[in-house]
């Protein structure tokens, strides 16, 4: 499952004064820009809107459908083409410094305690060790 936003209290790597440091998210101001087109538009003209203008409805078949309300008209169904996180993240570094950063300056910290990462890392290192042993024996 793909996450759209980073969460509070999540460990991250944040850029501060030109270098990347480990930090923790303290607060998130969620905002996003979406590229859409109207399903009724045969030309498929793209529009850019903020996420808070979109309406989400669930159909009888449990599929999510997206709509947008233009002025006072009935909502029109749209297709989502692109999504960009423009949220502001307040992060705290281990030394206590707190900084507000945009999403491009905050990256999720991929911890090594995930089971799927450990298993692939272990198999990769085992394969590398086997290849090194084979090279040593052939020399």
Automatic annotation (TrEMBL):
UniProt biased composition (Acidic residues): 124-139
Segments carrying the region annotation (Disordered) are 102-139
The UniProt regions of compositional bias labelled Polar residues, in chain numbering, are 110-123
Supply the name of the protein.
Answer: Tudor domain-containing protein
Organism in which the protein naturally occurs: Caenorhabditis remanei
